[in-house]
Amino acid sequence: MKTSHPTDTKDLEIKNHKCFFVGGVKKNIDNKEIAKGTMYVEQFTPKKHKENLKIIFIHGGGQTGVGFLGTPDGRRGWVHDFLLAGFEVFVVDQPGRGRSGYSSKLFGDYIDRELDIDDCERRFTSMKDLGNWPQAKHHSQWPDKGRRGDKYFEQFLASQVNTMSDRIEIEKMSRVALAELLDLVGPAFVLGHSQGGPFCWLAGDVRPKKILGLLAIEPNGPPFYNVAYGGHKQSHLKNSKTDKKRDGDKEWYITASEPDRPGGITYLPLTFEPPLKENESLIAEIDSNSTKDSLVQCYLQKEPARKLKNLQNLPILILSAEASYHSPYDHGTSNFLKQAGVEHDFIRLENHGLQGNGHMMMLENNNHQIADFLLKWMYSKIS
What we know:
Blueprint: E1 14-29, E2 32-46, E3 54-58, H1 78-84, E4 88-93, H2 104-107, E5 110-111, H3 117-125, H4 127-130, H5 151-159, E6 163-164, H6 167-185, E7 188-193, H7 198-206, E8 211-217, E9 227-229, E10 253-255, E11 272-273, E12 284-286, E13 299-301, E14 307-308, E15 316-320, H8 330-339, E16 345-348, H9 367-382
Parallel strand pairs: 3-4, 3-7, 7-8, 8-15, 15-16
Antiparallel strand pairs: 1-2, 2-4, 5-6, 9-10, 11-14, 12-13
Helix pairs in contact: 6-7
């Protein structure tokens, strides 16, 4: 059920609204010099800007920055919540996506999983009926039934875009662009959602002194190995037709046969202590601590674990929603950080009275209440 909130009606005065680009390198393609890897940034400065309060929003896979500007049912998005709170806001489109531009000649193949209507319904909007993970039954916050033909689902589907298949290249380009952006506007909070969540780790690693805090909203995971729910038929794993259950897998999911994230929580290696040698990867082993039947048995570094020294003194939040397909494994990212010596807050929304949310919580009925929760956490770290 929708609830009224001041964000949707309160007047908002913008002092400055502009856009610019950061990052990118010049590449010679077909005898033409072309810029590759630039990142589009949209800047909003409220008239009542509170000095030094800034936040960068980074969208996830299949999305652009539009997902933070408004909801499929026509309400204001998280950007407005933060502007009303006095934050200067920077919304990006990842390199190779949206207004940052894309080309198969520059970026290679794209995947269209997020354009699959069945997958969108099952993972994002109608998991109470279609989801195949234990927590899916709790979903209640999407503004309509979340099925094809529904007005708001069709608006959401129209916002989905293709995503580059080369995740290492995405992280390389984004790391350069975010470093440049933080040099221009930092210190700032960095909020990353889903596939954009690990960009928090990249930004904190490359520019720790420019970070006010990192907010990883259901970041891409779990560590090292992807998982798939519902067996081979609905699997998106690289070797989906041949993957078999691994030790520790429960009946409702399959863990990939090969690691997907060699850096554990990223595709690129972060700054570890002791450092990784050239072409050296982390060694993964299954977490020996057992989990509830409703949670994935995730992987950690093989002991002795390397430490993430650049992240160790930063305020960090990992946020997980009650009904999301991330809910079964977000604890794995938290445990990875803990093992790497990184103190942080791992918070499940349902434990704070915010129930029934899915992965696209910024678009759901109680999106403003979640934004209020995020703001309170941020204030607690800078007061």
